[in-house]
Amino acid sequence: MSGPIHFEQEPGARAGAPPLIVPTPALVMAGALIVFVFGLAISAKLFGFGAFRETTTAVLAERALRFVDVPGGAITVMDATTNTVAAELGPNSNNFLRGAMRALTRARRMASIGPDVPFRLVRYVDGRLVLHDPATKQSVTVTSFGPTQVESFDRLLMHTK
């Protein structure tokens, strides 16, 4: 670049107004900032720094569950191992659980996966409680959402009806 950049005045601009001139060093610095930010983003993606990864720890407790919609808005939670009812969730209750299940089943529907593969509810030694979908490899870390949500999923993990 040679010298500052001059912009033409807009039609109807005030007569006698000084021309808009952007200094070359400012343009160079703006361009360098853009290149730097893109460089950071690309290197973060390539090398994984700044990414959140859950470390795997030993499993403390685990239960395979199927969620069956019942007419009227209720949900029956079945233990997939014993094929017994683990819980019955009435309509308009357990909204967080319903939301988590809706998100996971939406991914199954988009991948044309049926309800044959049960979900896994896992309590790890480090205290995390995670709902896994082995069919889509997605999961919801329940402990990230507070003690009320953990309690509702803990009941499914530990108790039978």
Mean pLDDT: 82
Shape: elongated
| Strand runs, count | 8
Gap between N and C termini: 76 Å
Can you give a write-up of this model?
With 161 residues, the chain is an alpha+beta fold. It has 2 domains: 5-47; 59-158, no CATH class. It contains 3 helices and 8 strands, in the order ββαβββαβββα. The strands form 2 sheets. A 6-stranded antiparallel β-sheet has the order 5-4-3-6-7-8, covered by helices on one side. Strands 1-2 form a two-stranded antiparallel ribbon. A hairpin with a 3-residue loop joins strand 3 and strand 4. The longest helix has 24 residues, at 24-47.
Task: Pick out its properties.
2 domains; alpha+beta; two-stranded antiparallel sheet; 161 residues; single chain
Overview in brief:
The chain is α+β, with helices and mostly antiparallel strands and 161 residues long. It contains three helices and eight strands, in the order ββαβββαβββα.
Please write out the topology:
Elements (H helix, E strand, L loop, with lengths): L4 E2 L14 E2 L1 H24 L11 E12 L3 E6 L4 E6 L5 H16 L8 E6 L4 E5 L4 E4 L5 H12 L3
Antiparallel strand pairs: 1-2, 3-4, 3-6, 4-5, 6-7, 7-8
